[in-house]
Amino acid sequence: MTNIRIMKKHLETNVIQPLLAQGFTGKYPHLRREKENCIELIAFQTNKHGGSFTVEVSAVFPDKENRNFVLYDGLTIDDLTVWNTDNRYRLKGMYDGWFYYRDLYSKYIFGFGKDFLDICENDNNPFIPKGYKLVQQFNENTAEQICNEINKQLIKAFKWLQKFENFNS
Length: 169
What we know:
Elements (H helix, E strand, L loop, with lengths): L2 H19 L3 E3 L2 E5 L4 E8 L5 E9 L28 E2 L8 E2 L2 E7 L3 E7 L13 E4 L3 H28 L2
Antiparallel strand pairs: 1-2, 2-3, 3-4, 4-5, 4-6, 7-8, 7-9
């Protein structure tokens, strides 16, 4: 099974199913929960180069002056995702704001902090530049740890969301 399939399987079981049980609807990568005064949104954004993703939450207020979104041509309230909102909360990830589902190497670069290098599973004998060390070896256990970290960070995200909703009530 490929890394992306392993990660998606664990996300579905450990993150998305519990969110659906809490009243969210939709499917990966976009979930939503309709409440009396707002619609809560969650999005899983995959890195365009693959190997990592981030999670963002937001809410829209269709009946308020500060709706937190703009409808573009052909877009309806039912089509809105986190990416259509102005204010959102991004989970901090595990490394540099992202959750990686590849082997990950790190090196401290003076003045710039840490640099991360993720190695694709297809690279049988990857060239690792001098000074980089393995900080994460991806496998089923790592996928489980990533899901646990997402659920932990979602607690803070939902607190932010509640404050945001209260402010806009």
